[in-house]
Amino acid sequence: MKNGLVNFLKKLINESVSLETKDNLTIKGIIIKVDKFSNLHLKDVKIGDSNLEKLNIKGSNIRYIQFRENKI
């Protein structure tokens, strides 16, 4: 089942997403890479009032991901 999730997340590469971490942090950015552990690599990241060029997020720390409806 995990490969199914990774394959789905790879379809979101170059898409803008909003995600929430398990510690209630909301992060927005564009997915540039997904590895076999569901870790996400983002660019053009916004966390609250802060902006980052890039950010890596461990897959196990992600609570949920929001994306455009037409990507389902």
So what's the overall shape? globular
CATH topology: SH3 type barrels
Number of helices, where a helix is a run of at least 4 consecutive DSSP H or I residues:
1
- What is the CATH architecture annotation? Roll
Could you tell me how far the N terminus lies from the C terminus, measured between alpha carbons in angstroms? 17 Å
What is the helix/strand order? HEEEEE
| Broad structural category | mainly beta
Helix fraction bin: 10-25%
Query: What is the quaternary state of this protein?
Result: single chain
Mean pLDDT: 92
Q: What share of the residues does DSSP label as strand, in percent?
A: over 45%
Write structural notes for this entry.
The chain is mainly β and 72 residues long. It has one domain (2-67): Roll (SH3 type barrels). Helix content is 12%, strand content 50%. It has one helix spanning 2-10; strands at 16-21, 26-34, 40-47, 50-57, 62-66. Strands 4-3-2-1-5 form a five-stranded antiparallel sheet. A hairpin with a 5-residue loop joins strand 2 (26-34) and strand 3. It starts with a helix and ends in a 6-residue tail after the last strand. Residues 4-71 form the Sm domain. Pfam families: LSM. It comes from Nosema bombycis (strain CQ1 / CVCC 102059) (Microsporidian parasite).
